[in-house]
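User: Can you predict the 3D structure for this chain?
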Amino acid sequence: MGLDQLLDLVIANRWEILAVIFGIASVYLSTREHIWSWPTGIVNVSLYFVVFLEAKLYADMGLQVVYFALSLYGWYEWLYGGENRTELHVSRATRSLGVRLLVIGAVSAAVLGTVLARFTDAALPYLDSATTSTSLVAQWMMTRKIVENWAVWVVVDVVYIGMFIFKHLYLTAGLYAVFLVLAVMGYVQWKQSFEKDRAAGTEGTGSGERGPGSAQPISSKA
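Assistant: Here is the predicted structure, written as structure tokens:
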């Protein structure tokens, strides 16, 4: 491949390339519980709105709008969602919360998949909708710093890799392979943070009662 061809390829895929860069930065910062994960994530989802529009993955395109709102919410919550409007700390999900989120995700996937299949030319309506709904659940869990969000992302990332390869979005498939590795890292690091502070007996407000259910709280950092 010549230099001119490479340049043309970069220009043709410029939005996807930029989205990949900001996406990796955002997720890595999330594994470190760094607040800048949210502004970099906002740039990432804005770019992917354009990418998914061109690929006719409408559910994922719409998901970016919700991600944008959730990113603003998560940014605020990580800063002020703790006790007395302090930093939010890592928590664990309860069984009841897990069941509620599972039901919400399944029902949302079925409804959205039916709508896309009947009224749009979506390429993979039900698979697209399932990943969309599950991603929303995982993202809400991240805004509340619930450890298990990373386990949900592992499952979602595996499905996304196959879907994006099928749609010839190879850079994005590669990005989600990196996300898969980062999700494993995030789970390990957040769990260690939780266990460390639990051993120290330091409690925080965690997810509390705000949202679809409650979670078991513990602070992540001093």
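Residues 45 and 64 are 5 Å apart (CA to CA). The chain has one domain: 3-205.
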